[in-house]
Amino acid sequence: MTRHFEATIEKFPIAGVFTISRGSKTEAEVVTCAITRDGVTGRGECVPYKRYGETTEGVLDEINSLASMMHDGMDRHTLQTRLRPGAARNAVDCALWDLEAKSLGRSVASMIEAAEKPLITAFTLSLGEPEAMAEDARRNAARPLLKVKLGTDDDESRMRAVRQAAPDSRLIVDANEGWTEDNLARHLDVADALGISLIEQPLPAGKDAILATIRRKVMICADESVHATGDLASLRNRYDAVNIKLDKTGGLTEALIMKEEAQRLGFAVMIGCMVGTSLAMAPAVLLAQDADYADLDGPLLLAQDRPDGLRYDGSLVYPPRTNLWG
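^ Dipeptide epimerase, sequence as received from the core. Prediction below:
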């Protein structure tokens, strides 16, 4: 058995500027892992995230630390004990899934018994001034599901502007930990009045205890507050939904376990993403087949995707073809 193991940093320009409450960026910087065995190559992609203490170089070093073990034939299950949940493990885990599927002549969809149907994905509106966000919403008003980035001192005007510009779209708002206990109740009331479907991570992780006591009509979804399966039980009295991202769970292996447990505990499930290419979205599209929300628009935010990328038709995203992944 011969193996080749390689990890590389790649950069993909974003179409314009992508802004959330923590800052702006003009490119997606990703780390790609490729594992070759007997002429068959599996690939995976991750997006290191500064909010979680990750850097691109640090993630690359984490992946490269596995090189000798990969040559000895390490599998997905052993990987779970070698790296912590996070971006590095995600890239390797997804590469191993891809390699296993191609080696067996099967699809990952068949291996995990996932449906292979197109999904409606949310389309993200970048944070900006209310007028600019309204214009962005107006351009995308035909999309059935919009995700609105918030987290400012004046989010009420932004929510109202977007709702007026896209009256028929379902709306998710994502505060990215930017609200406070002082303005939470007011924002919840506004969201309810505007018919917003879901509010994502309104308060900072670790400072969200008030969610257990505050009444609301709009569902609240954990993102920064939840990473892997072990986090779920403690969130039951605070959140109604959880956002599962492969870059948080450390790959598809843990994400499958986490989704099953989240559903058992009664959470609604969103399958989300960082801003990455179709290679990062591909396993998440399969994971999202029976989820309540899919937020997998990363490639739509890029100026250029990978060759053989996912097929998007408006807000529909189709399962990956095997020449991309899985």
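The two ends are 21 Å apart (CA to CA).
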